Amino acid sequence: MTGADRQERSRARTRHLVASLEAETARWTEATGPGGPLEKHHSQVACLVRLLRTCLRDLDGLPDRELTEPVLDLHHVWDFFRGKLVLRCLPQYRDFLETADELAWACYQPAPAAAGSGPGVPPLVFLNRAEVPFAVGRGHDYRELLPGAVRTRSGEVAAGTLPFPIIGVPWHQTEHLPGLLTVAHEVGHHVEDDCGLAQALRARVRGSGLPSERRGLWEDWVTEVFADVCACLACGPAYPDTLSDALADLPPLAFGGYPPRELRLRACRSVFEPAAPGPTEPGPSGEVDEVDEAAVVVRALTADGYAELGGRTLPSVLTCAEAWEPEVAAGRLLAGMPSGTADARASLASAAAAFTRDPADYDAMGVGRRVVREVLDHRPKGPRAATPAPEAADRRAAAAGHLLAGLLTRTGPSAG
Fold first, then answer.
1. End-to-end CA distance of the chain, in Å?
2. pTM for this prediction
3. Other C-beta atoms within 10 Å of 5: how many?
C-alpha cells in the first residue's frame, strides 16, 4: 500500500498536536464564559489560555522536529490545571469544591481590594492526596505537584512559575465540612504573598518588644501565625476549635515552621481577646511566659495599619463579624433550620460550631449537606474576578507565555 511519506505524516501529526491544544483552550474558554458551567473560573482559565496561546505563537515557525517536544510539555503543564478544573464537572465533587472556592474567595478578595490591586486571579482549590491542606503561591515552583516527569529539562524549568495561587485540600475532607475552615489559613499565605507583606510581618515581630532570644523563633513562625490570624479574623472562634481537633490528630512537630501546638492555639485565641499593651517581661524565675508572647505577637500583627493594605489594619480588612458569633446560627442548624447567614465564612463557621457542640446531631440533621447548599444558593452570579481578565493579570500571563516559549526551546531532552 502506498501513501504519504513519513515526513509528511510527521508534519500532520505535529499540526494535530498543536490543534488539540488550541481546541482545548477554546472549549475551556467557552465553558468559563458568561453563563457557562464554570464561569466562576473565568479569570483563572483566561490567564492559562493567554499563557498557552502566547507560547504557541512564539513557537510557531519552528521546524516540526523541534516543535513536538515543547508542545507536549505544554500539554503536560495544561493537564495539571485541567485535572483540577474537570473535577468540578463531576457531581460527587462539584458542590464541595465550589463551596471551598467560595470560602477561599471570601477570605482572599478583601486584601487585594484594600491594597488597591483589584480582585486579581483568585486561588484555585483542588483535591490532593496530602494529609493536610497546603498552599502554593503565585510565581512559585509546582514541579513536584505535576503527575509525571515533563519531557524536557526546559519543561521542568517552565513548571517553576505558577500563574495563580492554588490550595490543596485532602480528599478525605470531602465528607467533613468543618475541616474546610483550614482553607482560610492557606488563604492567609496567599494574602501575605500577593500583598507583599513578608518583610512587614517580620519587622513587626522585631518591633514587638519580645526578648531578643525569643524574636528569632517568632520570626521563623510568623508566616504560619499570620495565616492563623487571617483565618481567625475571617472565620471567628470556630477556626481555633477546628484547628485544635486537626492538630490533635497529628504527631508533635510533624511540620516545620509552626509554633508548638498549645502556643499556636493560644495565638489564635488571643485574636478574640484584648491584648496586653506592652512587651512581655521575664517573670520572677527569669523565664518568659510563652503564652503572653503569643498575645504580644498577635497584637503586633493586628494593632496598626499596613501601608501595603492602604493603611488599614488587618482586622478592618479581613474580619467577618457574622462569623465571630456563630452560636445562634449553629443552634438553628442543629434544630433543622437554615443558619440565617449569607456569607460563606459565617455559614461554614456556624457548621463547624454545630459540629463542635454536638457531632451526633450534626450528622443526624445533615448539617454539612445543608450548609453546602446554603453557601451555593447565596453565591452571586457571574465570574469572581473582572471580565475580561484584569489587565495586570493579562500582562503577567502574556509575559509568562513568552518566557515559557523561550525556556521550552532553550535546552534539550531530559535525561531518562
1. 36
2. 0.87
3. 8
List pLDDT tens digits, range 50-108.
888 888 888 887 787 778 888 888 888 888 899 999 999 999 999 999 999 999 999 99
Bridge pairing between strands 124-128 and 166-170: parallel
Q: Mean pLDDT, to the nearest integer, of 249-259?
A: 70
306: Cβ contacts below 8 Å, ≥ 6 apart: 195, 197, 200, 312, 313, 314
Please name every residue paired with 168 in a beta bridge, in sequence order, or none if there are none: 126, 134
Q: For residue 36, give Cα distances in angstroms to 41, 87, 102, 121.
A: 10, 16, 17, 18
The runs of H, that is alpha helices, within 144-211 are: 153-158, 182-194, 198-206
Give the residue from 108, 96, 125, 86 showing the smallest Cα distance to 375.
96
d(CA 256, CA 264): 13
Per the DSSP assignment, residues forming a β-bridge with 166 are 124, 136
C-alpha cell of residue 303? 494593632
pLDDT digits (tens, 9 = 90+) for 364-415: 999 999 999 999 999 988 887 644 445 665 666 666 556 556 655 554 444 3
Quick count: other Cβ atoms within 10 Å of Cβ 321? 9
Q: How many angstroms separate the Cα of 226 from the Cα of each of 113, 184, 270, 374?
A: 19, 11, 13, 29
CA 217 to chain centre: 26
Residue 104 class from Cβ within 10 Å (0-12 exposed, 13-18 middle, 19+ buried)? buried
